[in-house]
C-alpha cells in the first residue's frame, strides 16, 4: 500500500538527514573494504566518487516519483488560500495553482541531471555502506510508491483531499532532497540541484497550503494489498467469533454462487447486520444508523432475489461460511460489549462484502447466469386440486443486448426480433427488472462510500 511505501520513504530520508559528515562516512567505508595494507588517497577518492554516482542515481529515482505524484495530483489540487483579485492580463491557474511551480522546478531538475535511473539489480542488491543503503531503500520505496498511486492516470482514483495529502508528502520529501543536496555538494562528482532556493520556497508554499486544508489520509490504503486469507483455528467467543466468520465469508466469496446460495448469503448478512445495529447503538450512533440501513437494504435484496433463479455457479464454501456466521450470530445474547475498533472492523468488512455481492448480482444478471421468474397466461398441469399459473425462468428483458452483426445491420441477415417474449405478470410487490434487484445494494454502496470519505475509522488488520 502507499501508506507502507510512503512511510518507508520518509523513514529513510529522516535517517539520511541525521548523518552530517557524509564524506567521512564514505571514506571510512571504502577504507574498510580495501583488502591491501596500503590505503592510498587516490583509491579512496575514486571509491567515494563511485558511491557519489550511485547516490545520484538513487536521488533521481526519488525525484522521478515526486514529479509523477505532482502530475497525478495537479488536476485535483486546488489552493486552500482565499482567492486573490484576478488580473485580466494573466490566466487564472485554477486547479493545480500551487503544484504548478513545484512541478515545473522538479522537471527542470530532472532534465539537467546527467545520470540514469538505477537498474533493477542496483535497487534490489543491499549495499555494505550504511549511507548508500539508506539511499537504496529510499529509491526502492519511490519505485514501489509509483505503482501504488497508479502513475499519472488517476482519474476516478484520487479525490481532492487525497490529492492534497499527496502534495504534502511530495513537499516534505522535496525539502529533504534540497537539504541533502546542500550537504553533499563537496562530494567528488556530485551534481547539485538547479535553483535550490526557488525549489525550497516552492515546497514550503505547497506544504503550507496543504496545512490550511483538511487532507484525506485514506490515500494510504491505495495500491497493492496482501491477499485475504481465511482465519483458521478454533472459533473465538462472542463478537470476535462473528467477526472471524464474516472475514472467512469474504475470503470464500470468490466465485459465482448459484441463485439459491446467494439468497442464503444475503440472508446471513441481513441477520448479522441487524444484530450488530443493536450492539452499536450505545457505542456509535453513526454506525448504528449505517448498520440499520444496511440491514434494510439486504432485506429488500433478499425479497427481490425470490424471483431470480439459476443453477450455474459454485458457492458451497461461501454458503458454509454464511451458515457459520448465522449460527454464531444467533448465539449472541445482545448484552455483549463491543469496542469501537471491532465496529470499525465490521464496517470495513461490510463495505468489501457489499461491493462483492453487488458485482456478483450485476455480472450474473447481465451475463444471463441468473434468470428471472415470469408467469405465463396458462395453468400448470400438476395434478393437484389447486392449479397454479405456469412459471418460466427467462433472461431479463432489460439485459444489455449484444452488438449487432454486420449482416443484421444491413438488413440481409435474419431478424433477431421476430419472436416476442410472452407477457409477464409479476406481482406488484415483486421487482421485475435487474435494476430493481441491484438497487438496494447500489444505493447502500453509494451511501457507504460517501460516508467513508467523511468519517475516519481505524483500519482492519
How much helical structure, as a percent, in the residues? 55-70%
Strand order of the largest sheet: 1-2-3
What composes the largest sheet?
A: 3 strands, antiparallel
Radius of gyration: 30 Å
**How many E strands?**
3
Task: Write up what this structure looks like.
It is a single chain. 58% of the residues lie in helices and 4% in strands. The chain is mainly α and 461 residues long.
Q: Brief description of this entry?
A:
The protein has 461 residues and is mostly helical. The chain contains 15 helices and 3 strands. The two termini are 13 Å apart.
Give the topology:
Blueprint: H1 2-17, H2 22-33, H3 41-73, H4 99-112, H5 120-124, H6 130-149, H7 160-183, H8 196-212, H9 239-252, H10 259-280, H11 285-304, E1 308-309, H12 316-330, H13 340-367, E2 371-379, E3 389-394, H14 406-410, H15 434-454
Antiparallel strand pairs: 1-2, 2-3
What are its keywords?
461 residues; mainly alpha; 4% strand; elongated
Amino acid at each position: 500500500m502507499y501508506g507502507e511505501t510512503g512511510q518507508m520513504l520518509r523513514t529513510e530520508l529522516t535517517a539520511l538527514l541525521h548523518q552530517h559528515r557524509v564524506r567521512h562516512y564514505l571514506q571510512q567505508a571504502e577504507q574498510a573494504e580495501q583488502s591491501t595494507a596500503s590505503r592510498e588517497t587516490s583509491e579512496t577518492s575514486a571509491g567515494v566518487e563511485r558511491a557519489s554516482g550511485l547516490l545520484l542515481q538513487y536521488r533521481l529515482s526519488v525525484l522521478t516519483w515526486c514529479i509523477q505524484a505532482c502530475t497525478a495530483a495537479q488536476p485535483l489540487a486546488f489552493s486552500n488560500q482565499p482567492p486573490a483579485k484576478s488580473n485580466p492580463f494573466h490566466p487564472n491557474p485554477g486547479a493545480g495553482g500551487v503544484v504548478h511551480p513545484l512541478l515545473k522546478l522538479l522537471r527542470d531538475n530532472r532534465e539537467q541531471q546527467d545520470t540514469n535511473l538505477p537498474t533493477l539489480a542496483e535497487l534490489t542488491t543491499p549495499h555494505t555502506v550504511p549511507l548508500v543503503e539508506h539511499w537504496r531503500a529510499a529509491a526502492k520505496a519511490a519505485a514501489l510508491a509509483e505503482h501504488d498511486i497508479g502513475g499519472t492516470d488517476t482519474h476516478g482514483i484520487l479525490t481532492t483531499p487525497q490529492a492534497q495529502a499527496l502534495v504534502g508528502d511530495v513537499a516534505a520529501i522535496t525539502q529533504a532532497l534540497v537539504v541533502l543536496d546542500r550537504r553533499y555538494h563537496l562530494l567528488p562528482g556530485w551534481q547539485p540541484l538547479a535553483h535550490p532556493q526557488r525549489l525550497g520556497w516552492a515546497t514550503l508554499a505547497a506544504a503550507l497550503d496543504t496545512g490550511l486544508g483538511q487532507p484525506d489520509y485514506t490515500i494510504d490504503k491505495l495500491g497493492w494489498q496482501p491477499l485475504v486469507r481465511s482465519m483458521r483455528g478454533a472459533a473465538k467467543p462472542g463478537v470476535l467469533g462473528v467477526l472471524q466468520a464474516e472475514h472467512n465469508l469474504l475470503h470464500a466469496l470468490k466465485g459465482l454462487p448459484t441463485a439459491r446460495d446467494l439468497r442464503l448469503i444475503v440472508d446471513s448478512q441481513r441477520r448479522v447486520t441487524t444484530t450488530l445495529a443493536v450492539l452499536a447503538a450505545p457505542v456509535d450512533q453513526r454506525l448504528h444508523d449505517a448498520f440499520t440501513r444496511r440491514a434494510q437494504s439486504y432485506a429488500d435484496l433478499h425479497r427481490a432475489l425470490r424471483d431470480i433463479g439459476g443453477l450455474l455457479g459454485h458457492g458451497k464454501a461461501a454458503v458454509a461460511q454464511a451458515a457459520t456466521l448465522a449460527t454464531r450470530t444467533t448465539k449472541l445474547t445482545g448484552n455483549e460489549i463491543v469496542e469501537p475498533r471491532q465496529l470499525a472492523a465490521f464496517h470495513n468488512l461490510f463495505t468489501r462484502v457489499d461491493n462483492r455481492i453487488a458485482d456478483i448480482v450485476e455480472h450474473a444478471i447481465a451475463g444471463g447466469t441468473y434468470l428471472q421468474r415470469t408467469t405465463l397466461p396458462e395453468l400448470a398441469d400438476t395434478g393437484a386440486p389447486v392449479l397454479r399459473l405456469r412459471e418460466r425462468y427467462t433472461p431479463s428483458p432489460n439485459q444489455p443486448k449484444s452488438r449487432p452483426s454486420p449482416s443484421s445491420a444491413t438488413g440481409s441477415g435474419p431478424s433477431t426480433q421476430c419472436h416476442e417474449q410472452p407477457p409477464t405478470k409479476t406481482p406488484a410487490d415483486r421487482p421485475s427488472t435487474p435494476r430493481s434487484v441491484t438497487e438496494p445494494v447500489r444505493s447502500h454502496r453509494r451511501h457507504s462510500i460517501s460516508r467513508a470519505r467523511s468519517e475516519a475509522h481505524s483500519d482492519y488488520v
